[in-house]
Write a structure and sequence with these properties.
This protein is mainly α. The chain is 69% helix and 0% strand. α1 packs across α2 and α5 packs across α10. The radius of gyration is 17 Å and the shape is elongated.
Length: 190
């Protein structure tokens, strides 16, 4: 039994310290994911807080098929998306788009790696940052979440599928659409 397994077992028995130890090393990463999805510090904080409370309440639902951190990230992504839904007052829409065998992201990142700022750099006011920020805002929640998890968090397709509760094809499509939108926004600057 791993240390994580022991802590999960103890947390399920009501040990708050064990739960705290399970999540303490993840809070920065959880906040980063939520902030990139919501693009709002207050909403991101609320999402993380909600997610941690939800994880504590639903600890019995954790079945161990995925890593605890993957399960926790999924809860944070869902909480961040819920924050956006509450803010906008409507359900997120998933845009239709062509399927692709390749998400196209590697080519895009190779061409634009130095041009893709993180959220903290987007506020810098550069033309590239402004365009990236605008395109991220125009993406569906699914596209933005999949792109952020893949290219800002470095998660594999399988991990993203677990976090977003989608299949690999839907994941690739979402990333492909996000990359295509960013490529279109940055193309005039070449």
């Amino acid at each position: 039994m791993t240390v994580e397994d022991e802590r999960v077992a103890r947390a399920r028995q009501g040990d708050r310290d064990a739960f705290r130890r399970l999540v303490e090393g993840e809070t920065r990463a959880l906040y980063a994911v939520a902030a990139r999805i919501t693009r709002d510090a207050a909403l991101a904080e609320d999402a993380v807080q909600e997610a941690l409370f939800s994880a504590w309440r639903r600890l019995a639902d954790f079945d161990g098929r995925a890593a605890f951190t993957t399960w926790l990230h999924r809860i944070v992504v869902n909480a961040a998306l819920e924050q956006l839904r509450r803010r906008s007052g409507r359900e997120a829409l998933v845009a239709d788009g062509p399927a692709g065998d390749d998400d196209g992201a590697e080519d895009f990142l190779a061409a634009h790696a130095d041009e893709l700022p993180g959220p903290e750099q987007l506020a810098g006011g550069s033309e590239i940052g402004r365009r990236v920020h605008q395109q991220l805002a125009r993406m569906t929640h699914l596209e933005r979440s999949a792109f952020v998890l893949r290219h800002h968090e470095g998660q594999s397709l399988e991990e993203i599928c677990g976090v977003l509760a989608i299949n690999v094809s839907a994941c690739k499509q979402a990333i492909f659409r996000a990359v295509r939108k960013l490529r279109g926004a940055l193309e005039p600057l070449r």
